[in-house]
Amino acid sequence: MCLAVPAVIVGLNGTSATISVEGALREVDVSLIDDPRLGDYVLVHAGFAIHKWDRSEVEELEAIRAATDLPEVLA
Amino acid sequence: MKTLVQSIAELAERLGRDVNLMEVCGTHTMVAFRTGLNRLLPESVRLRSGPGCPVCVTDANYIDAAVQLCRRPDVVVATFGDLLRVPGSESSLDRERAAGGNVRIVYSPSDALVLAKECTSKQAVFLGVGFETTAPTVAWSIWRAARDGVRNFSVLCAHKTMPRAMDALLRDQQVRIDGFLCPGHVSVITGAAMYRFLCERYKVPCVISGFEAWDILKSISLLLTQLVEGRAEVEIEYSRSVTEHGNAAAQRLIDEVFEPNDASWRGIGTITGSGLAIRSKYSNFDAAHVLGVTFGESHVNPLCRCGDILRGVSTPLDCRLFGRDCTPAHPIGPCMVSGEGVCAAYYKYEGSAAA
Lengths: 75, 355
Known about the structure:
- The complex is a heterodimer.
- By secondary structure, chain A is an alpha+beta fold.
- Chain A is built from two helices and five strands.
- Chain A has one domain (5-74): SH3 type barrels (Roll), CATH 2.30.30.140.
- Chain A has helices at 55-67, 70-74; strands at residues 5-13, 16-21, 24-29, 41-45, 48-53.
- In chain A, a hairpin with a 2-residue loop joins strand 2 and strand 3.
- Chain B is an alpha/beta fold.
- Helices cover 39% and strands 18% of the residues of chain B.
- Chain B is built from 15 helices and twelve strands.
- Chain B has helices at residues 2-15, 26-35, 60-70, 93-98, 109-118, 135-148, 162-171, 184-190, 196-202, 213-229, 248-257, 287-290, 306-310, 334-337, 342-350; strands at 19-25, 45-52, 75-79, 103-105, 123-128, 153-157, 159-160, 179-182, 206-208, 234-236, 258-265, 269-278.
- Chain B has a five-stranded parallel β-sheet. Chain B has a four-stranded parallel β-sheet with strand order 4-3-5-6, sandwiched between helices. Chain B has a three-stranded antiparallel β-sheet with strand order 7-12-11.
- In chain B, helix 6 (135-148) links the parallel strand 5 and strand 6.
- In chain B, helix 1 (2-15) packs parallel to helix 10 (213-229) and helix 5 (109-118) packs parallel to helix 6.
- Chains A and B meet through strand 5, helix 1 and helix 2 of A and helix 2, helix 5, helix 6, helix 8 and helix 10 of B.
């Protein structure tokens, strides 16, 4: 239940934001994070952004995903 | 990643004894099974699932109360989909919904507030279940309802918090835990500092893990390194999301709306200070208060081992019901219902043949 997904803010209207999760759009509330801006990467849980990632943190996730080679390890 | 698996094997060999590492969070359990990383670990390193699946630890009498509410013509129950199939003593919300009960699935507590505003002839009751990750979103909906003067929105509150539950497990003589993989998204809200008392009091290492397979393997290697070096500290592997002190705005909201209470955990019992209750200043948004809800005795199948499984004492393979009477299509215990439940994970990824 504590699932949270990374998303990018593509629209802002007060404390409401449109986010894109791999292209799927949804409205979320951004009142729990500081200074939300267009283009910010955020972690979203139950309709709320709960954390803002900086660019280096996004790059870290991309690097981790690129390094995940489970089928090879399992073989 | 191969390097990481090798380093875990080397650390396990240096340690030279069996260790039980508890992944507290249900989402970590699912990642471990889905990716098969649990099979990459040496035999001496055992992952034990903990009580970190909110659906699994929700008492049957809470479901019973929700079932009673959805039968009322003046109420519409709004819930996350996860709770729908959880069996109460005699029924489930899913069964009630099929029989015409007023149950709506929502994605966010804020959707439940919208439902209340659209459906003014009924009391919209949101089922407030979940840990520190979810609690601020529910606190926000109560705070917002109060601000907007919404009179037909309330929450049936059964929120729980992690630290006292982890403390209770470490005090339990039946349970042996050598290290905790701490829940990542709970920690986004609370911060890492929350776990420090566990390290100090019980000399147990804690590593806050992210949710990629790589994150979990890295966290396991950090835990084993601490054990090899005789350290017991809080480390943050999930540093892209977790800070020392967490999300201050979310913590303020939780504190504004909720206060700690003693909570009942399904299969475990009551743990002092492990729950959140709605403060009296927001009692007009407390469904138990507004609608006079009482929580009765719950009746669960005595053969169900979910309680032992949630404490890491047993695995689903120790349960006589697992895979025979209790399956995802006909779940008896909550650990088989939830997508994050350890019985569901065993059934799906280890095969019912294991039973």
